[in-house]
Amino acid sequence: MSSIEIRPAPRSAGPRAGRLAALAALGLALLAALLAGTPARAQNPDMEGRFVGIGPARGMQVEITDAGRNPAGMFHDSNGVEATIGGGWKNGGLEALLNFPGRPVFVRLTPSALGMQMAVLPLDPEGKPLREQARVLAFLREGIETPEQPALYQDPPKRAGSEIDPDVFLASYQFWPPEGVANGFDNIGPRYRTILRMFPQIHADVLWKLCQAETQRGLLAEALRGQGAGCADIESTVSRLQESGRFSDWKAAVDREISQLMPAVQCSRGYIVKESVCAPASQRVAKAATSLETLGTLLGRWR
């Protein structure tokens, strides 16, 4: 394996070094503009440790050995190539330039509930930012168990305003970073967003991801309307469950509701036509529609 250390170009190294330094500054500025983080701080001890990629980042690893004022770590891509992580803190995230063979890549690492996100901004051979290739990858802290990806799994949508099958969303969203969940929640359309609201454990789990996303804030406000709770309530509840070791119970409850809702969604789209499956599924949705359960009452039961 190769190891590539990232060092700032010396100021006296001549015009080429000056251009590279200017390019680095431009790239970091663009990345920050595209993917703004949380309030600024000089260090983040929560980001120390080893993190493993999920979804499109499967096979990648990030190891942060020092999350202080002089951050240090190593990135391993899925092909075994390594790059040293240095850089610095900006707006609550760690920004660095990874010099992979062929072209450099700017990255921004920010903490998430179960690990971290890596925002990636590649550069073309001339050093110009490729905005259309910017993406966000999700990493879980090493040791956190995740279920195997289901057969219906698809990678997270890169943008809102398109269309995604609701059964694909149900099967996939738990593996997606918050921005992917926000895009997917938009793409399933208002009909299926309404149906998801009828299943409060799924709805709460989706809202937990939406609350972490930087985009689709209007959609989040709509989803929270009349729910008797907000993002702070969700985040504090999930944090307590994680600290007490009960988060697996939360996820098990989510999976039970998905198993109840999935047949109804697939029947409504004609993927399943058996009366023996679709009739009970329809009855479950009808029963859920009359429930008075809200996000607030559900979170109260988890406290």
Task: Describe this entry's structure for a reader.
This protein has 303 residues and is α+β, with helices and mostly antiparallel strands. The chain has two domains: 139 residues, Lipocalin, CATH 2.40.128.30; 137 residues, no CATH class. The protein is built from ten helices and ten strands. A hairpin with a 2-residue loop joins strand 7 and strand 8. Helix 5 packs across helix 7. The longest helix has 22 residues. It starts with a strand and ends with a helix. The N terminus is likely disordered.
Structure characteristics:
303 residues, alpha+beta, Lipocalin, ten-stranded mixed β-sheet, 10 strands, disordered N terminus
User: Can you tell me the CATH class of the largest domain?
Assistant: Mainly Beta
Radius of gyration: 21 Å
The number of helical segments is 10
Q: What's the total count of β strands? A: 10
Order of helices and strands: EHEEEEEEEEEHHHHHHHHH
Low-confidence stretches: 1-42
Q: How helix-rich are the residues, as a percent range? A: 40-55%
Strand content: 15-25%
Strand ordering within the main sheet:
1-5-4-3-2-10-9-8-7-6
Any guess at the CATH architecture of the largest domain? Beta Barrel
* Approximate shape: globular
Looking at the structure, the CATH topology of the largest domain is Lipocalin
Total separate domains: 2
Task: Spell out the CATH superfamily of the largest domain.
Answer: Avidin-like
Structural class: alpha+beta
Distance between the termini: 48 Å
Q: Give a short account of the largest sheet.
A: 10 strands, mixed
